[in-house]
Amino acid sequence: MFNLPTILTLSRIATVPIVVATFYYDSTAMRWIACAIFTAAGITDYFDGYLARRDRLVSRLGRFLDPIADKLLVASVLLMIVAFDRVGPWSYLPALVILLREIFVSGLREFLAELRVGLPVTRLAKAKTTIQMVALGFLIVGDKAPDWISAVLIGEIGLWFAAAVTFITGYDYLKAGLRHMDAGADLP
User: Fold this and answer.
1) Is the entire prediction scored with pTM above 0.70?
2) CA–CA gap between residue 140 and residue 22 (Å, rounded)
3) pLDDT 10s digits, 138-187
4) 50 with 109: CB under 8 angstroms?
5) What domains lie within the chain, and their CATH numbers?
6) Fewest C-beta atoms under 10 Å: which of 91, 113, 138, 158?
7) CA 42, CA 12: separation in Å to the nearest integer?
8) CA distance 51 to 95
């Protein structure tokens, strides 16, 4: 049960409080440390799934924890960049769209699990996660990046792009979920 892919997923969850703590010790070095930890955690998202499939170590625990780890990491950083004014007010909307979609899809997955229906992750949803991670990495560093890197601008554009993809994937999941809900319309 506690194989390398699962340990990588657990390590991603363990980085969440560390990355959050770095926001309280604001300095150029601390932002780059936070970005490095966040990036390493994001990379584990790729490798835990890859290794689990390659080595046939896919487990129920891993399948349960992997999306939770992603959501905890993304949601915590989104909340922190807004709380610590690392984005302008015009970027609150994409942050909210991303958070709401994550909650919605989690609820939908839980509901469909009761019906014994899986909701597989799409390639577009995987791309969405990558876009979010890259955008958030830039926003973690923010205005402490060298002048030749427009980290805030790149991060905010990425956040808007991620929100658009997030909206599309959320809609796709909703359509898939509604098909199963209609099938059970006569349930109490």
Assistant:
1) yes
2) 10
3) 999 999 999 999 999 999 999 999 999 999 999 988 888 888 776 655 44
4) no
5) 4-183 (1.20.120.1760)
6) 113
7) 8
8) 31
